[in-house]
């Protein structure tokens, strides 16, 4: 049994994209943040990262995420863990990019569009979380004096 348990896990010195979706998404976010920094000032790279994040999150939106509990064949609770939800992944990525790019109307417009598209396939509670963030980013953009372009996506409320 100890060997079976040991073989169920992979251990290493570093996180890997194959085993850790949060790590993979975080890499895109970090590249976007660096691109938006005043020293680099490369909004095209930030937009590219945002588009790739949107693609991945769009795929993940329709997927089932673990509940945080694993039962054995007799339906007895055997493992409890802190689950990662779609909303956790999306909120982390979107908030981090918004923080650095709130003053760029093109980036904010694209961010809002990506958020709206990702919310379409998400579960109701995840969609509500994303749309609350959507509203907050849109409001922050207006307050910063860089209002979002009129072509920005309008949220779909269900």
UniProtKB/TrEMBL annotation:
Pfam families, alphabetized: DUF2254
Protein name: DUF2254 domain-containing protein
Species assigned in the record: Rhodovulum visakhapatnamense
Lineage of producing organism: Bacteria, Pseudomonadati, Pseudomonadota, Alphaproteobacteria, Rhodobacterales
